[in-house]
Task: structure prediction
Amino acid sequence: MSPTIRDVAREARVGIGTVSRVLNNSPQVSDKTRKLVLAVIEELDFTPNPIARRLSTGKTLTIGVILPNLTRSSYIERLRGVQETLALTKYHLVLFSVGTISDRDDYFRTLPSSSMVDGLLIISLPPTDKQAKRFKESGVPVVLVDADHPDLCSVTIDDIEGGKLATQYLVNQGHKKISYMGDILETAFHPSTRYRHQGYLQAIRENGLPEQPEYQIFGDSGRLNARKMADSLFSLKEPPTAIFASSDAQGIGILDKANELGLKVPEDLAVIGFDGILEADYANLTTIDQNLYQSGVESVQMLLACLENPPATINKKILPLELIARKTTGVSPKSLG
Amino acid sequence: MSPTIRDVAREARVGIGTVSRVLNNSPQVSDKTRKLVLAVIEELDFTPNPIARRLSTGKTLTIGVILPNLTRSSYIERLRGVQETLALTKYHLVLFSVGTISDRDDYFRTLPSSSMVDGLLIISLPPTDKQAKRFKESGVPVVLVDADHPDLCSVTIDDIEGGKLATQYLVNQGHKKISYMGDILETAFHPSTRYRHQGYLQAIRENGLPEQPEYQIFGDSGRLNARKMADSLFSLKEPPTAIFASSDAQGIGILDKANELGLKVPEDLAVIGFDGILEADYANLTTIDQNLYQSGVESVQMLLACLENPPATINKKILPLELIARKTTGVSPKSLG
DNA sequence: CTGAAAGCGCTAACAA
DNA sequence: TTGTTAGCGCTTTCAG
Result:
């Protein structure tokens, strides 16, 4: 059995209160006793039991992170930001990964009132009004990343703006036949693909371009399915000269298919993605970088601030978007003359 | 403040022991009182405080996972296996990610004796003898994944065998100029690249091929640097007709460069990777699949078994390797005639 | 500046 | 079958 604070106290011939004070760097302990106690701690190789400490203080020094499965690079990149920022603090990171809707609901219901965590970081999982209410009532600070709710702190981006930005960029390069590829709206956990689509539509309209339904394609997310969707886009009588993909994964899937078919990018086809994942860099994909890593960093900072002194007001941080021009856009397509 | 077991007891007019028994599904409590207590629990929306429970039982119901930064797909894939398996149990997952050697040493030193976790899963971070000794002494069960030590349980593969398997496959296809690309041996956290290289050398020798030093190239891991290394391989007077990359990331980097240079794969150049990450599938890269996800699953199972009843003997699991033939190998290269 | 004592919320041994 | 009690290892009053 590892030594307890009592062992240290006995060995050092002091009270256990004194040992505790040394442990917590209390200023009101003489240098002499402090040194003595420290020596005994060293000698006994004593480490304070964090569980006991937690019970006593009511603080768990733990942050819960809830996110969808570890399958998408974007989640991972956010998690990385969270992890690396949290590592600089005294807090630990407990990971709750959500495979199904019911997983999500279970975590949302039980975690806040479980006294398991001091705070909750929720990535890419928008809560319902009822769930948000529960969070508030629980008293456990919650920060949403890549999701929003009027009652909760959040770190987000402006997806509509992002959609416009991407689409306008293609327009500026002379494209008129611009396609949008997104996730299925109904089944998506998440409304961001919807907003990006709205941004796309706005840009199309503002530029007086026709809203071609056949250019707007929705399907299961991911690189593989994007290949299929790209294929069907390419088989149109008048295929698009440019595609705005609502994620980099889809953008890369489009490149795969274009490559397979011998389409020249960007000459025959321009592609712009969304996210700013590492793979987009590898693939030379032009994209809207949404600062995924940074979203993790800032959400932790926001949560920590809430932990220190509960804010009277709800914090909302909107991260900037950056268009990173790479090689899948930029040369005037042949078909534009 | 959330209600405690005492509130429930008072409200239900029973002893707190009885409430505790109900909570723990003890059979020795009458159906009547059980129902009563359950009703009060429901009414008060009571959730037992896990921290208090932990202090009392000495079990934390938490598994610590230590791994290198969340940057490599292979780590993530293993973590995913761990996470999804752990989610099926009562255990929580606390994530400790290691950025530097000193991070690693800190975690290795403090975690086992911290009473923070019931067990430790260590991914791709081989401990020293001293560290392994400390693990043993701490009494906290440890399972190593993708690393080995005589005194500790582990889930590994046979890297030498894998190296041979990959190389022999290339030989069988008629290649004589076969290159090996690996991580830098000295700085690598990890010896696996060294073993794969040994396997490569064994296969080369067994087939009576010359061990060309210029075909053996080592550099920082990752796709980007692999492009550079591939470039220097291609600039050789007699470039290799096949490359065995010690990771899929490197394999894909090689494909990037080959593509950039207009080399036909597999006609001009065959490439085989190692790992079996998802990206290898996307890139159509032939590879040695080391069952990354499964390593996570099995390590959790092994650890859980150790938790249930401490094994007298040290468990060693060696996962099978599988060669997945895809499109970057297989056609007889032109230069072979 | 220091020691003693009262919890934190629970489990488990012991009585009844 | 149940209630009572003694911890689990720590922090934090409250005296001194």
Notes: Chain A touches chain B through 38 residues (CB under 8 Å).
